[in-house]
């Protein structure tokens, strides 16, 4: 029966094994990205269970439903929390995964509760902090690739987004990573750090026009702290 199921659902089999190349090929050939097995598990659910991070990234980028749950209310985020897979939880979170699940008996369960019950203290700590303070995909700088960060920025994602005054922004998180030597060239954090100067200058000068290489505002580079304060007040 299992062999028959695999033959009927090659995408699910490839996802279960973490065969990223085959998943890419099957999606390009038109495989249904949110198809499920007999237990209601989607390809994204399977990669979340087995912690295939690269394959999960491909599925999410191609539009997989991050919150697709089976009849028991078990979702990809549920699987990642139970497994204690912090990177997977962060990846799913960066695509808007819900943190609260409705079980088959209509009771509610949170991601934090699942991580706590299974003894994953580091994951629990991250979930507690990020549930309240990590409000946008761009906050997830340690997990999203630079290409995705660039796409988010081009679409208008704010490097100053925060839940409340004093809470982390993508820019402040990027600076923290830089201070720890974790904002290598080509990373999402490095991109945010390189992005903020022209954007904040534009905000400070009262315009959102893209600044060219010969912008007359370049002479203000010695006043970043004041410009940033002005920009934050107006954002």
From TrEMBL:
Transmembrane segments: none annotated. PROSITE patterns: ANK_REP_REGION (PS50297), ANK_REPEAT (PS50088). Pfam families: Ank_2 (PF12796). ANK repeats lie at residues 39-71. Coiled coil: none annotated. Keywords: ANK repeat, Repeat. This is Cd4-specific ankyrin repeat protein. It comes from Chrysochromulina tobinii.
């Amino acid at each position: 029966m299992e062999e028959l199921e695999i033959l009927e659902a090659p995408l699910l089999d490839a996802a279960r094994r973490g065969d990223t190349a085959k998943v890419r090929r099957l999606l390009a050939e038109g495989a249904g990205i949110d198809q499920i097995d007999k237990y209601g598990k989607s390809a994204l659910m399977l990669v979340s269970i087995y912690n295939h991070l690269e394959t999960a990234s491909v599925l999410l980028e191609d539009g997989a439903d991050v919150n697709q749950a089976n009849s028991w209310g078990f979702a990809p985020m549920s699987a990642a929390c139970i497994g204690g897979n912090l990177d997977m939880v962060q990846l799913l979170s960066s695509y808007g995964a819900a943190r609260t699940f409705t079980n088959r008996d209509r009771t509610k369960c949170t991601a934090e509760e699942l991580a706590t019950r299974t003894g994953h203290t580091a994951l629990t700590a991250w979930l507690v902090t990020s549930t309240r303070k990590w409000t946008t995909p761009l906050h997830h700088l340690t997990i999203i690739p630079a290409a995705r960060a660039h796409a988010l920025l081009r679409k208008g994602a704010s490097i100053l987004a925060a839940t409340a005054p004093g809470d982390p922004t993508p820019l402040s998180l990027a600076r923290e990573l830089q201070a720890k030597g974790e904002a290598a060239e080509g990373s999402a954090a490095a991109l945010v750090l390189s992005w903020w100067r022209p954007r904040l200058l534009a905000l400070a000068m009262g315009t959102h026009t893209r600044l060219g290489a010969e912008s007359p505002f370049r002479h203000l580079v010695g006043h970043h702290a004041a410009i940033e304060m002005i920009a934050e007040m107006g954002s």
